[in-house]
Design a protein that fits this description.
This protein is mainly alpha-helical. It has 7 helices and no strands. 8% of the residues are buried.
């Protein structure tokens, strides 16, 4: 394992496959460095992740246009909020695509699936998820209490 030494936080995440993987790699590299962890991702894992992401993008592109627009906005929102589960692959995003595929197949409009308030829909999806802000606040609280890592 190689100790990651990059500490830059990306200000934007690109939605292109390569750009997204590079930006997310830098982001998680910065997080792991801050916590003193080592990255254990090998080339095979990166290739499999890229294949998985391409298949996911193809599924999104197969959705009706209104579903694609809402999906992209949800994706942007989730990247900003930063639930930790997003670092474990595309699980939550794939679940959204599953839901959207079912809705489209049954002839529903996208807002019939999500409801009129798409941000509230997103918040409800991740309400029990830990975010990177939660992790940071916990570490600050521990340091304040004298229980530093």
């Amino acid at each position: 394992p190689v100790l990651c030494s990059i500490s830059a936080y990306p200000s934007t995440l690109y939605h292109q496959t390569v750009g997204l993987m590079v930006q997310l790699s830098l982001y998680f590299c910065a997080l792991s460095t801050a916590k003193g962890m080592r990255l254990n991702m090998n080339i095979r894992d990166m290739i499999e992740g890229k294949k998985e992401w391409r298949a996911h993008v193809a599924r999104v592109k197969a959705l009706p246009q209104d579903y694609q627009i809402v999906y992209k906005e949800i994706q942007k929102y989730l990247y900003k909020v930063g639930p930790v589960e997003l670092s474990d692959g595309i699980g939550i995003l794939a679940g959204i695509v599953d839901l959207f595929e079912e809705g489209a197949a049954s002839g529903k409009g996208v807002l019939e699936v999500t409801g009129q308030d798409v941000a509230a829909f997103c918040d409800d999806l991740i309400k029990d998820s830990k975010t990177y802000m939660d992790i940071y606040q916990e570490s600050v609280r521990r340091k304040k209490d004298g229980n530093s890592d």
